[in-house]
Amino acid sequence: MDYHPFLAEHPAVYIGRGSPQRRRVALSFDDGPGRATPDLLSLLRELEIAATFFCLGQAVRAEPGVVARMLAEGHEVGNHSMSHADARGLSPAALLEQEVRPATRELLRAGVSASSAHLFRPAYGEIQAEQVERLGREGYIVAGWSIDPSDWLEPEAPGHVECVVGAVLARIHPGAIVLLHDGDDSGYARHRIVDIVRALVPALRAQGYDFARVGDLWRER
User: Fold this and answer.
1) Of 67, 66, 98, 105, whose CA–CA distance to 83 is shortest?
2) Which residues have C-beta within 8 Å of that of residue 133, sequence separation ≥ 6?
3) CA-to-CA distance for 164 and 178, rounded, in angstroms?
4) Which of 30, 84, 90, 145 would be a feasible disulfide site paired with 94, CB 3.0-4.6 Å?
5) What range does the domain containing 178 cover?
6) Residue 144 falls within a domain, yes or no?
7) How far apart are CA 23 and CA 21, in angstroms?
8) How many Cβ atoms are within 10 Å of 134's Cβ, its own excluded?
9) pLDDT value at position 155?
10) 3 lies in some domain
11) Does residue 138 belong to any structural domain of this protein?
């Protein structure tokens, strides 16, 4: 999401990467909870990693038990809007009232802390300067990413897992925020995300990286 030049003008509201001084990486997962999420949580527990899940309000409402498990296992649960609407078609007020605040209410109802519920990642990474400014005035932090390996693209294609892992490793850097997905896509579960994480984490650890949540990187900065 660093491709929006204006975001650099809002350091008090936006985070797209963490400190370059530490070899830490944040794994973040969008669009869930989905059908692949329980298996992903089991793997993350096995790997002893805390991650950030940017959840849709409508999915939180449908799967409160999965969100409760995320929280119990030390993960951070952020706001990914209510319905994954493209912010480019909304005014700042409409984005806030139709997408962001309703998702915040669902997250709070599910037990998510207010600070995490105010960590907002826009759908598709699309947002406008006026929307960022409005969200900042309302106490929200806009969270982007610095590595997008396109794990959403053709997940059933041969070599998909190796392609995604290779894309992350080719661009990895200290303070990286990696964009991944665990939510269902057009009715299909994203089960390959489990294989991706199973391969990616040991490769990153072999390069000396450890793991943090997006909020940890924000507070450190």
Assistant:
1) 98
2) 10, 13, 92
3) 11
4) 90
5) 14-220
6) yes
7) 7
8) 18
9) 86
10) no
11) yes
Question: Measured between alpha carbons, how far is 91 from 111 in angstroms, rounded to an integer?
Answer: 29
Cα angle for residues 157, 167, 48 (degrees, 5° grid) = 95
Which CATH number does the domain housing residue 146 bear? 3.20.20.370
Q: Is the peptide bond before 33 cis (omega within 30 degrees of 0)?
A: yes
Domain-embedded: residue 6: no
**Which of the residues are catalytic?**
30, 181
**Looking at residue 173, what DSSP letter applies?**
-
CB 56 within 8 A of CB 83: yes
Q: Which residues of the chain have pLDDT under 50?
A: none
Instruction: For residue 176, count other CB atoms closer than 10 A to its CB.
Output: 23
The token duo for 187 is: 């009715």
- The residues that bridge with 144 in the sheet, in sequence order, are none
Closest to 86 measured CA to CA, from 121, 126, 48: 126
Query: Strand, helix or coil at 104?
Result: helix
Burial tier of 112 (Cβ tally within 10 Å: 0-12, 13-18, 19+): buried
Most distant CA pair in the chain, distance:
46
The number of folded domains in the chain is 1
Question: In this structure, what DSSP letter does residue 207 have?
Answer: T
Encode pLDDT of 95-119 as tens digits.
999 999 999 999 999 999 999 999 9
